[in-house]
Design a protein that fits this description.
This protein is mainly β. It has a domain at 5-55 and 64-100 and 121-142 and 158-183: SOS response associated peptidase-like (hypothetical protein yedk fold, Alpha-Beta Complex). Helices cover 14% and strands 38% of the residues. Strands 3, 4, 7, 8, 11, 12, 13 and 14 form an 8-stranded mixed beta sheet that branches. A 5-stranded antiparallel beta sheet has the order 2-1-9-10-15, with no helix packed on it. A hairpin with a 2-residue loop joins strand 3 (37-42) and strand 4. The radius of gyration is 17 Å and the shape is globular. It starts with a strand and ends in a 6-residue tail after the last strand. This is Abasic site processing protein.
Length: 202
């Protein structure tokens, strides 16, 4: 599942490509991790939101709430579950990115493998969003069974949106949106690096 992606393009480029408003200057890192802010296109605007829906668990020892955990991926076969279904029905968004990463290699020595589209240096993947008490507006990335070369790296991948699928995801019916949740059939570029997956070690 995707726990890291890269977004190196400017806010103005995102707004222009996806015909979105961009009235507030946003700050986001080029590498986006769960629990940190990223850019999304929601309700016709480029907005900053936290990547991940907050999941609040309780301590087994004290019964007190623990620090919320960001649930940043939404599996297509779980869209009807309580955590996701209202956002899928009412609040679908675009997540702009230039590449996403998966971890490969033995435990403790995993490295970053980046996946991207060779014919598009900025593209959108499917997302859903909501407002939360913990972090304000937050979003989750829709993941489906991997297709093509992406399956060489991981068994799941983000739902990539192109052409008229971009508008259908945002404003179509639930059935129309669900029909888009399939593995990408186009070319995927794979860059296997030696950079350690753990960002503190890298």
């Amino acid at each position: 599942m995707c726990n890291l992606y890269r977004m190196t393009k400017a806010q103005a480029e995102v707004a222009a490509l996806f015909s979105a408003g961009s009235n507030t200057q946003l700050n986001a890192a080029e590498e986006i991790y769960p629990g940190y802010p990223g850019m999304v296109v929601a309700e016709g605007e480029v907005r900053a939101m936290v990547w991940g829906f907050p999941l609040v668990l309780k301590s087994k020892k004290t019964g007190e709430p623990l620090k919320p955990k960001p649930v940043n991926n939404t599996r297509t076969d779980k869209l009807d579950s309580y955590m996701w279904r209202f956002s899928f029905a009412e609040r679908r968004c675009l997540i702009p990115l230039t590449a996403w990463a998966e971890a490969e290699g033995p435990k403790g020595k995993m490295t970053r493998t980046w996946l991207s589209l060779p014919d598009a240096d900025l593209f959108a993947v499917a997302g859903i969003w909501r407002d939360s008490d913990e972090w304000g507006a937050c979003y989750s990335m829709i993941m489906t069974d991997a297709g093509g070369r992406a399956a060489e790296v991981h068994n799941r991948m983000p739902v990539i949106l192109q052409g008229n699928a971009i508008e259908r995801w945002q404003s179509g019916s639930q059935d129309e949106a669900r029909a888009l949740c399939s593995g990408y059939a186009g070319e995927i570029e794979i860059d296997r690096t030696k950079q350690l997956w753990n960002r503190r070690s890298a």
